[in-house]
Automatic annotation (TrEMBL):
Keywords: Membrane, Transmembrane, Transmembrane helix. It comes from Glycomyces artemisiae. This is Membrane-associated phospholipid phosphatase. Gene3D superfamilies: Phosphatidic acid phosphatase type 2/haloperoxidase. The chain crosses the membrane at residues 70-88, 95-112, 132-153, 160-178, 190-209. It comes from the Bacteria.
Length: 247
């Protein structure tokens, strides 16, 4: 069984370009909202807000409430448990990445909220705090699915994971608008910001994550060979106590 290792950042230049440009675009939208008061896409938000939502009961409401809680303190508690699990499996570099990504996305959301200063819908159905744009819940879900992709999903299964990741993010976006806690464009901006900031953390910490991957693959390789079988490792010690050492 292959050891679980972090995935490398995409080689496509487009991925890095989007990770840099998307936060700037969201910040630009926030400045526009601040200066204009009513954004030009308010008509779309009003139309969507009138379409969604319903009685504060039933399966859809309970699902929205579950996602509401997961996007708050209970979700952070689950993240803390996941970080502890990474530390216990000697994957402290992945733990650093997970914490850095969550912290960076939270800071980015808070800063943009302060810039945009956008009120929430008047018919909000739950208790909320801070400003509307962008959605912190959508940003946290987007950050979460990228972190999972980097740290826990084997590279050969990433194509299967990404549709699941999109579904979970859209589900959170729908839950926030279903409860009228956010405008539709708040959730779009939140998801985009969460994804892009986490991708930037992934790129910035690539040397750290690459080191973890190399070490774990080396430990799994037969003594005397490196992870790709080229023979670059050497044995240190005797018998069952021998270990592989990276030159």
């Amino acid at each position: 069984m292959q050891p679980m290792t972090p995935n490398g950042f995409p080689k496509s230049r487009l991925a890095l370009a989007l990770a840099v440009l998307v936060p700037l675009g969201v910040l630009g939208d926030a400045i526009w909202i601040r200066l204009a008061g009513t954004p030009p896409w308010q008509g779309l938000d009003d139309h969507w807000n009138a379409l969604v939502g319903g009685p504060a009961d039933g399966v859809r409401w309970q699902l929205a409430q579950l996602l509401n809680r997961l996007g708050a303190a209970p979700g952070l508690a689950l993240l803390a448990i996941a970080v502890v699990a990474l530390l216990l499996t000697k994957r402290w570099r992945s733990a650093v990445f997970a914490c850095a990504a969550v912290a960076a996305s939270a800071i980015a959301v808070d800063l943009v909220k302060r810039v945009g200063d956008r009120p929430r819908p008047l018919d909000v159905m739950i208790d909320t705090g801070s400003w509307a744009f962008p959605s912190g819940h959508a940003a946290r879900m987007a950050a979460f699915v990228v972190i999972v992709a980097v740290v826990w999903i084997p590279a050969r299964h990433l194509r299967t994971w990404w549709p699941v990741a999109v579904f979970l993010t859209v589900l959170m976006m729908g839950a926030r608008t279903w409860q009228h806690a956010h405008w539709l464009t708040d959730t779009i901006a939140g998801a985009a910001l969460g994804w892009s900031v986490t991708a930037l953390a992934w790129f910035a910490l690539t040397p750290l994550l690459d080191r973890e991957r190399a070490q774990r693959e080396a430990l799994d390789a037969p003594v005397g060979t490196d992870a790709d079988g080229s023979g670059a490792l050497r044995s240190v010690g005797n018998g069952k106590h021998a270990i592989a050492e990276v030159p």
